[in-house]
Amino acid sequence: MELTPGVHALTETVERGDRTVTIHPAVVETPTGLLLVDAGYAGELDQLDAALQDAGLGLDDVRAVLVTHQDGDHAGALREVVDRTGAVVYAHANCAPYLDGRKEPIKSSEGERYPPVEVDVELVDGVSFRTDAGPMDAVFTPGHAPGHVSLYFPDADLLLAADALTADEEGLAGPSEQFTPEMDRALDSAARLADRGIERVLCYHGGFVEADSDRIREIASRR
Questions:
Q1: Domains and CATH numbers, the chain
Q2: For range 68-92, the mean pLDDT
Q3: CA distance 35 to 58
Q4: Reported pTM
Q5: Confidence of residue 17 (pLDDT cuts 50, 70, 90)
Q6: How far is 144 from 94, CA to CA, in rounded Å?
Q7: Residue 60 pLDDT > 60, yes or no?
Q8: C-alpha–C-alpha distance, residues 68 and 53, integer Å
Q9: Residue 109 has pLDDT above 60, yes or no
Q10: Distances in whole angstroms, Cα of residue 102 to Cα of each of 50, 184, 186, 204, 213
Q11: Which of 18, 20, 56, 148 ranks highest by number of CB atoms within 10 Å?
Q12: pLDDT level of residue 16 (50, 70, 90 thresholds)
C-alpha cells in the first residue's frame, strides 16, 4: 500500500506458535535507494522480499535499514537483510546495545535472541532524512522499548508509529499494555507525537488508519 508517493506499507503474516501475527514494516524511497523501516521476524526474508515485490520494489535495492526498536518482530531478520543487501543499519543510540549483542533484548527468553548486528549510525532525537516524500524526522518515543523511534513526514502529515501506537477495528489505539513495560513513559511519548500535524498513521500492529493529532492527544491523556 502506498501511503504517500515514496512511502509504502508492507504486510507480513507470520505463524507464531498457536497465533497468527500480522505486521507492517515500511519502505521509503530515497535519492540513494530504498530505506527499509524494520526487518520483521527471523526466517521470514522470503516473505519480506515478496511484500516488496508486491509494492513494485525489490529487496536487492534496499540500501539502509532503520530499526525502530529492539524487539524480535522488528529486528529478527536484520542479520539476514544485511547479509543479503549490505545495507547500512540505523537505530537510536539507546537501542544499539540490544541490536549489537552488548545487551540481551528485554522481551526475549534467556538464551534466545536474534543474531547480533552492528549499528552503523546511531540516531538522536530529531535527526532528519532526505526522502522522495520530503523530510523524514526521527522522533524519540521511548516507553514501549528503550531507544524506540517513530518517523514523521511533515510534508505528508504522515506518521510511521512503529509500536508507539497500535490500531484495531475501532481505529487508532494506544501502546500495547501487554508489551509496554513503561506505559507512563509511552504515553508521554504519544503526547510528543500529538504536537505534530498528523492526519494518517501506520502502526506496526494494526496497519494503516486515518487518525489525527487530536486522537493521539486523547490517547496520551490517559497518563
A1: 2-220 (3.60.15.10)
A2: 97
A3: 11
A4: 0.96
A5: confident
A6: 13
A7: yes
A8: 22
A9: no
A10: 32, 27, 24, 26, 37
A11: 148
A12: confident
Q: What is the pLDDT of residues 95-106, one digit of tens each?
A: 999 999 999 998
Any idea which residue has 506505559 for its cell? 183
What are the grid coordinates assigned to 111, written together?
A: 538464551
SS3 labels along the chain: CEEECCEEECCEEEEECCEEEEECCEEEEECCEEEEECCCCCCCHHHHHHHHHHCCCCHHHEEEEECCCCCHHHHCCHHHHHHHHCCEEEEECCCHHHHCCCCCCCCCCCCCCCCCCCCCEEECCCCEEEECCEEEEEEECCCCCCCCEEEEECCCCEEEEECCCEEECCEEECCCCCCCCCHHHHHHHHHHHHCCCCCEEEECCCEEEECCHHHHHHHHCCC
For the segment 165-173, the average pLDDT, to the nearest whole number, is 96
